[in-house]
UniProtKB/TrEMBL annotation:
InterPro entries assigned: DUF1833
Lineage, opening ranks: Bacteria, Pseudomonadati, Pseudomonadota, Gammaproteobacteria, Moraxellales
Protein name in UniProt: DUF1833 domain-containing protein
Domain of life: Bacteria
Pfam families the UniProt entry points to: DUF1833 (PF08875)
């Protein structure tokens, strides 16, 4: 039996019966409970969080696209939730009505699930993306689409410009 400790093990060493269950948790301080959704298990699942707490994720049609990989520490997900306008819009109205400028927080978790035994191959998530915030959102009568991103990490300039104003020796090179 192959042990699955992380997402790499799932892709490189797992058996064909191991499936990736992707979950999403969206929370806000004004909401009574977070939205917890699993994308590919029609009955919903009870799963253990990384904290050891067991919670229920309900099924909803969900498409999760990872953003581009870059070297600037930023992570992003593009998420389309087929909620038919029933789940997210009322909660967003609640935020807007309170004139609150806090963004909803998003946590992505992936679990290894053994479809042959219908049990988790590992109790806790094998991949977690935390610290994501809903930044842009659009919706129609079929779905809500939003981008969840980390706050920009590389927007603050550090140091000083490499110019003759600061480094007088450069003036000789420019002449």
């Amino acid at each position: 039996m192959v042990t699955i400790d992380d997402i790499t093990d799932l892709h490189l060493d797992s058996s064909p019966s191991i499936a990736l269950l992707e979950t999403l948790e969206v929370s806000h301080s004004l909401w009574p409970i977070p939205i917890r959704i699993v994308t590919n298990h029609a009955d919903g699942i009870e799963a253990m969080l990384e904290t050891g707490e067991t919670v229920y994720f309900e099924f909803a049609p969900l498409l999760i696209n990872n953003g581009t990989t870059s070297d600037d520490l930023d992570q992003s997900l593009n998420i389309t939730l087929g909620d038919l306008g029933e789940i997210v819009p009322p909660l967003i109205k609640q935020i807007r009505a309170s004139d609150n400028d806090e963004y909803p927080q998003v946590i992505y978790r992936a679990y290894a699930f053994d479809t042959s035994s219908m049990t988790f191959a590992k109790d806790k998530p094998i991949d977690i993306k935390k610290g994501l915030f809903v930044e842009q959102m659009s919706r129609d009568h079929q779905a809500t689409t939003f981008d969840a991103k980390t706050p920009d990490k590389n927007t603050v300039k550090t140091g000083r410009p490499y110019s003759p104003d600061y480094y007088t020796d450069l003036k000789g090179l420019l002449a």
